[in-house]
Amino acid sequence: EPPRADDDSGIFRDEGGAAAAVGESAGPPGALSTASPMGDAERELARRAVLSACAEVSCEECRDLCDALDRRTGDGDCGTTLARGAEAIAKDVSEGRFDFSSWPAAAACLARSVQVHMGGTSGAIYNILFTAAGTSLEEAEDGRPTLVRILNALEAGLAAVQKYGGAVPGDRTLVDALVPFLNSAKTIDASSPPESVKASLLESLARAEEGAEGTKGMTDA
């Protein structure tokens, strides 16, 4: 049975194995210097996006809800673990220890931070996700994250999580949210007017929420 988000066993431990190997590939931020550098506006956009996401994940409501759900099948610390990681990332960003020189470098910082500050299952899973996404962005033409490249990067991250974790839709993992999101988002015409693209992305996010909600009714095979 593939490891689930409440399972700290197997390769998702951060002490070694595939998860550690993937995490090490992120390297220091400077190792990704071949990507096109961000402009001032891009750096500020990326900084605000990371801080906003961290605030959402670390809020008391989100933390308590995730902990409560985790107590049904695990040790009840999922929300606390995610919040701890988000708070540490936000602190690194606020104190200038986060590399926004390029999008791949920022992804590498995320990969390293979640592994160091979260640990266990969550740290390893998100380390794998962000490392693979950063590698995809680095390999993309000129390294700039257009909508298509961002979605390709997220798809690469999902593929890596599934490769090393073995999870598939229906296993009650983050895969159940990411797959429907990507299936919807990959149909978006990136050349459409910004408001149209935004509306389509919000629709894709709704598909992700539906996927997450759908795990409530899933049972073990």
TrEMBL record:
UniProt record, GO biological process: glycerol catabolic process
Keywords, ordered alphabetically: Kinase, Transferase
Domain DhaL residue range list: 46-221
Cellular component annotations (GO), alphabetically ordered: cytosol
Compositionally biased residues, Low complexity: 17-31
SUPFAM superfamilies: DhaL-like
Annotated region (Disordered), positions in chain: 1-39
Superkingdom, natural source: Eukaryota
Keyword Acetylation listed: no
Cross-referenced Gene3D superfamilies: 1.25.40.340
GO terms for MF: glycerone kinase activity
Bias (Basic and acidic residues) ranges: 1-16
Kinase keyword on record: yes
PROSITE patterns tied to this protein: DHAL
Pfam families with a match to the protein in the record: Dak2
Record-given protein name: DhaL domain-containing protein
